[in-house]
Amino acid sequence: MNELFYRSTLVPSKESNAAVLQDPWEITYGPDDSLWITEAKGYRVRKVHPVNGGRRTILNLRNESGAFATTEYRRTFSDGQSPWPQGGMMGLAIHPDYNHPTTPKKYVYIAYVRNYVGNNQTYNGEYISGRLFWTWIVRFQYQNGQLVSPVKICDTIRGSNDHNSGRMIIAPVNGVNYLFYAEGDMGGGQFDNHNRVNKAQWKNSYEGKNSSLQS
């Protein structure tokens, strides 16, 4: 159709031989005309100017000193640790009332794999074959250029080193906003999880399905 497209590099792949973004995962165009980006491996949230590529870190949940004021919310495993979850810091959703003229809700929701439990574990009396992680959904507030005041929305989502999914959106249902979260099938039946039951078709399991929470 004779259409022309031009590419502009906002963020280079490397600077001084180091990766600028460590596996960018979620890229959301925010209500403040910025790109909000999660790093799956870097466990950071960056804001990037969509025209000139200017960027800054607004959240760091790596397990390093000074990464975040509240140790409880940091990632507990280290860079290079094996196994690593597929994903890591994953979905990000911004509350639709972020810029409400009278009652703004500067809420930002983030899903990330927080900790590794182990291989072939028993949880609540159930034997779980394969790699077991825990995934958290946390609500932050954007204040003074940082994501602060974390509140756990859910901390019991089973994670894996495969097929975590982790996509999130906020959408209204009958006038009420809900946070929708997609959970993968945990890689049941393949590779490190070959003996793990694939529960995507089980009605009483969240694995391999989309769940919702009131936001």
The H/E string reads EEEEEEEEEEEEE
As a percent range, the share of strand residues is: over 45%
Identify the overall geometry.
globular
What is the β-strand count? 13
C-alpha end-to-end distance: 43 Å
- Order of the strands making up the biggest sheet: 3-4-5-6
Q: Please, how many helices?
A: 0
Helicity range:
under 10%
CATH class of the domain at 79-214: Mainly Beta
Low-pLDDT residue intervals, each spanning 5 or more residues: none
Supply the CATH superfamily name of the domain at 79-214: TolB, C-terminal domain
Kindly state the mean pLDDT as a whole number? 91
Return the CATH architecture of the domain at 79-214: 6 Propeller
Task: Give me the secondary-structure topology.
Elements: E1 14-15, E2 18-19, E3 24-29, E4 35-39, E5 44-48, E6 55-60, E7 89-94, E8 107-123, E9 126-143, E10 146-159, E11 165-173, E12 176-183, E13 209-214
Antiparallel strand pairs: 1-2, 3-4, 4-5, 5-6, 7-8, 8-9, 9-10, 11-12, 12-13
Give an overview in words.
There is one protein chain. The chain contains no helices and 13 strands. By secondary structure, the protein is mainly β. It has a domain at 79-214: TolB, C-terminal domain (Neuraminidase, 6 Propeller), CATH 2.120.10.30. A hairpin with a 6-residue loop joins strand 5 and strand 6. 33% of the residues are buried.
